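Weekly puzzle thread! Below is a chain. First person to post its structure in token form gets bragging rights.
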Amino acid sequence: MNDRKQIIESITGDENRSRRARLAEGAVVFVLVLGLCIYLGVRFAHDPGDDPVAAGTSAAQQASSGLETIDLIAPAGTEPAGVVSSEISGATGETPPLEEVLPGVPLAVTFASAEQTYRAGRFGEAARMFAVYCDEHPGNAWGHYLRGLSLWKADRDQEARAAFDEALAIAPDHLKSLVNLARVELELAEPDAALATIERALDLAPLDVDARRVLGRAFQNLGRPLDAIAAYREALRTKPDDCWTLNNFGLAWIELGQFERALAPLARACELAPDIALIHNNLATALERTGHLAQAREQFQTAGELGSERGEAGYARLAGVEIPAGDLTVDLAVLAAAWTVPAAESEGESETVATASAEPAAATDAR
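Winning reply:
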């Protein structure tokens, strides 16, 4: 009996071990099959990188990663427009419908990608990209504003004005649109309109340096030099080392024939911005008109080396002039260091300025 029991138990143990082995083999096979299915599913799934529209949307979503802060350079013919506020909201990353995409514009246009194109100096393309962006985001005043800047830099002033007008229709208190609209109106030889526009800007921000400077330019274009000088003076009280206001302040004195008064602010402007050709041109003009011929020639030469045709012409003209042995010299560094924002003109000084001979001043420019 015991032998039989042992035999039965032995058989049962063998069967259990065999059953467990088969279960283990089945589990291994299941894992292998599952892994193969996952591999085949991944291998033959659709790859979005093969779809240009999908890939473009992904890139757009990466580009529009939130708020943008942009350093913008103003269009030719005016001073830098300053730093755009970080209140700009990035685009949503949506892909525009194909029928709305303009020639030469990527399928997916975001605020960031259009702004990068602007920074790269491709202003016409940036204007087209911002047009697409504005179609997708018609209520974003910053989009219309930057479209206006792009058009301005592309020498399309009338279209730029329309873009700034659209920004202001959305946000009437959009300061940068007001300031740059006034600049465009000056470029379009509409100083009365520019004056009205910049006064709106100053109602919003009385101490804004850019607005004060544009106010001065409007006064200059309207033949009101004393008002221009007063506007520049107010801007300099807020920001004494603003090179463009210093340049315009010196130029206003040149246009009044008060060349000595122009020397110090222009010397200071050149010290602050040594790589800007037109400031060297203006300083050269003031030096020439005050009898500092050798130094004037040097400033014209510097302007020419910086790419100014006016500078090259001024240097060539003075190169043929014999510099007298007693040619006057002035220490420009001392002048620049000693310059301070002057107090308001007294009544007597204003009368002197008003009756001064305003000789035409060649090779001058305002910004």
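Puzzle host: Confirmed. Bonus trivia for everyone else. Residues 42-101, 354-364 have pLDDT under 50 and may be disordered.
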